[in-house]
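Researcher: Re-running this chain for the archive, since the previous output was lost when a drive failed. Same request as before.
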Amino acid sequence: MQTIYDFLLPKGYMDAQGTIHKRGKMRLATAGDEIRATRDPRVLSNPSYLTIVVLSYVITELEGVEILTAGVIEQLFTADLAYLQDMYEKINDVEPPHMKVVCPSCGHVHEVPVNFTREG
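Model: Regenerated structure tokens:
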């Protein structure tokens, strides 16, 4: 099973010296990553910060950047952040699972998403 994925940012992270860093690696997320991120004080005060914190946990390498922090992720161009969010969703299969169900009235087979929460 593959757990580490290479990426190439469309724009690249520009450090304080003006150097552009594009190549990196992202690992699969764990339940602990997401739980720890939801407890982060920055996320508690601003829930939209969750993405930044989670990405700072799962991006294991950005070529030429010694320490990858949420502050580094904050400095990414929007195109790069969108790219990494999309990659995160794809490699972690964020989409809900689907199952086939049969309508008891007509017998038609439908594929529906499985919702493990009580909402909706």
